[in-house]
Amino acid sequence: MNAPPSRRPVSERVFRALCDDVLSGRYGPGEKLPTQRRLAADLGVNMGPVREALKRLEQLRLVESRQGDAMRVTDWRADGGLDVIAHVLVRSGALDHEALDGVMEARASMLSEAARLAAERRTDEQAVRLSEIAEAIALAESPDAAQALDFVFFAELVDAAGNLVFRLLTNSIREVYFEHADLFRAIVDGEGELSPLYAEAAAAVGIQAAAQAALAVRRLAEGQAARLAEALEHGDATVRGAEAVGGFRRA
């Protein structure tokens, strides 16, 4: 569930508002940001939270400061790293269509390859856990439970693959995925039509059938991407209220 904006630290809400401004193009690459004093006045906050938020933006390489110059926006598409993915994916309380297409396409390729590697490298314990999680998904009593288990299944699959980069990519979206779980709910919609693919993938990993495991996971990931795209098309993957502007109403 999303925490109400009022319960988030002020610096976090300032960061989200400014992050949205940069990623949405309100401030373009090379453009100077307003002064900290001006930003604080616009957002109705003290200077402290603005300074903290700007430090986080700088750590993400979304802005940069130069000696004797104002803080400027970077070209985040050229300079950004993995940590930017989560912020690009969910902006202003909604899933970004272009970013989502890219993330889901990359996800299907990564998870398919992870399944192939998992079939070759998994331990007996990992094979058993994958089967148990697949069974739990089939028996899940609610979409919330199925969605949580879906992430657990793929995290276990990635662990079994033994690829550090795949693990870091999974970690980079974990927080945003669960914080905005309602936006991604469609991946487990459809009355369990995709659930047999978890068991198929787990079984293939168990017998070390790499090609079969990769195919089952790709079918599953692409089916989930199609469900999510359909939900977006019908306007279901959004959240309401002040969250849409980072918890602030600008002056």
Explain what the structure shows.
The chain is mainly α and 251 residues long. It has 2 domains: 5-80, Orthogonal Bundle (Arc Repressor Mutant, subunit A), CATH 1.10.10.10; 87-233, GntR ligand-binding domain-like (Four Helix Bundle (Hemerythrin (Met), subunit A)). Helix content is 63%, strand content 3%. It has 11 helices and 4 strands, in the order αααββααββαααααα. Strand 3 and strand 4 (94-95) form a beta hairpin. The longest helix has 25 residues, at 97-121.
Order of helices and strands: HHHEEHHEEHHHHHH
Q: Going by CATH, what is the homologous superfamily of the largest domain?
A: GntR ligand-binding domain-like
Task: Specify the overall morphology.
Answer: elongated
Q: What's the number of helices? A: 11
CATH architecture of the largest domain: Up-down Bundle
Low-confidence stretches: 1-6, 239-246
Q: Going across the major beta sheet, what is the strand order? A: 1-2
Largest sheet: 2 strands, antiparallel
Q: How many domains?
A: 2
Strand content: under 5%
What portion of residues is helical? 55-70%
Topology, number of strands: 4
Taking the alpha carbons of the first and last residues, their distance comes to 28 Å
Class by alpha and beta content: mainly alpha
User: Which CATH class of the largest domain?
Assistant: Mainly Alpha
**Rounded average pLDDT:** 86
Radius of gyration of CA atoms, rounded to a whole number:
20 Å
CATH-assigned fold name of the largest domain: Four Helix Bundle (Hemerythrin (Met), subunit A)
List the helices and strands and how they pair.
Layout: H1 10-24, H2 36-43, H3 47-59, E1 63-64, E2 72-73, H4 76-79, H5 84-89, E3 90-91, E4 94-95, H6 97-121, H7 124-139, H8 143-161, H9 164-179, H10 195-206, H11 210-233
Antiparallel strand pairs: 1-2, 3-4
